[in-house]
Write a structure and sequence with these properties.
Elements: H1 2-21, H2 39-42, H3 50-68, H4 73-93, H5 105-108, H6 110-133, H7 139-163
Helix pairs in contact: 1-3, 3-4, 4-6, 6-7
């Protein structure tokens, strides 16, 4: 059990460092913002209690807020991600089928992981970007940001599953 906690602590440190040191430096005309740190919440074991998922999601988002000087935006969006994670797991997997304890590409396949990550990343990005502008004035411009950033973030997350997290 301690080995699993150490693995997730290292994963947390890794995703935060990659986000803060590398991906936050990449922005293409304001439309492409890759967010990799959500992978930590996506890969938590299914049996993790919901309150712990919410606490870890808040803490992860708060850490990103600390480094990016965005007071509470990532904390709120990532907490929402943690909140909708369990219903999305059941939606994607179906109530009757078995859900692998570890929701990863290796355990569930590419199609399953793509659907799972796209839904969660889209929800996160939609909330994050619309809270950032806090207006519907530039609705379609923000929607384009959401879509493009979701595509790039999911690409980076899936690529990491192929390259790094092959277990």
């Amino acid at each position: 059990m301690a080995r699993i906690w150490i693995k997730y602590l290292l994963l947390y440190i890794f995703v935060v460092l990659v986000q803060v040191l590398v991906l936050n430096q990449l922005q293409v005309s304001g439309y492409l913002n890759p967010y990799f740190y959500m992978l930590f919440i996506l890969l938590l074991p299914v049996s993790t209690p919901r309150y712990l998922v919410l606490l870890l999601a808040f803490f992860t988002g708060f850490t990103i807020d600390f480094f990016t000087d965005t007071p509470g935006l990532h904390a709120a969006a990532t907490t929402l991600l943690g909140y909708v994670r369990t219903p999305v797991l059941y939606l994607v997997s179906g109530r009757g089928s078995d859900i692998s304890e570890y929701p990863s590409l290796k355990n569930n396949g590419l199609r399953w992981f793509l659907i799972y990550s796209v839904i969660l990343v889209l929800a996160h990005h939609f909330f994050l970007f619309y809270m950032e502008v806090f207006s519907f004035t530039g609705f379609f411009r923000t929607l384009i940001r959401v879509i493009f950033s979701t595509i790039l973030s999911v690409f980076v997350i899936v690529l990491s599953q192929f390259l790094i997290f092959r277990e």
